[in-house]
Amino acid sequence: MGTLAALLAGKKIPTPEDRYWADVKGDIENVDNVLKITCIKVTYHLKTPNDKVEEAREAFSSYITRCPAAQSVIGCIRIEDDLMIEAM
Known about the structure:
The chain has 3 helices and 3 strands. It has helices spanning 2-10, 53-63, 68-73; strands at residues 20-31, 34-48, 78-87. Strands 1-2-3 form a 3-stranded mixed beta sheet, with helices on one face. A hairpin with a 2-residue loop joins strand 1 (20-31) and strand 2 (34-48). It is elongated and about 50 Å long.
């Protein structure tokens, strides 16, 4: 959440708790008799003014390549992410 929030801040899109949060789920599967996290699913929620929606989508489209956590696991755990925007 921090990397995306930083990119949003650079576009003057505020991310207080009541306007920016994430729902995160993971899949754990038996792989060769070893329980393994195979997928992390993140849905970001953002409330932002109408005139900032496209800038928010732009930030979302590039954040993952700059995210240390995602880049640390992306080779071994599938990451599925989505951004739900509520225009204000």
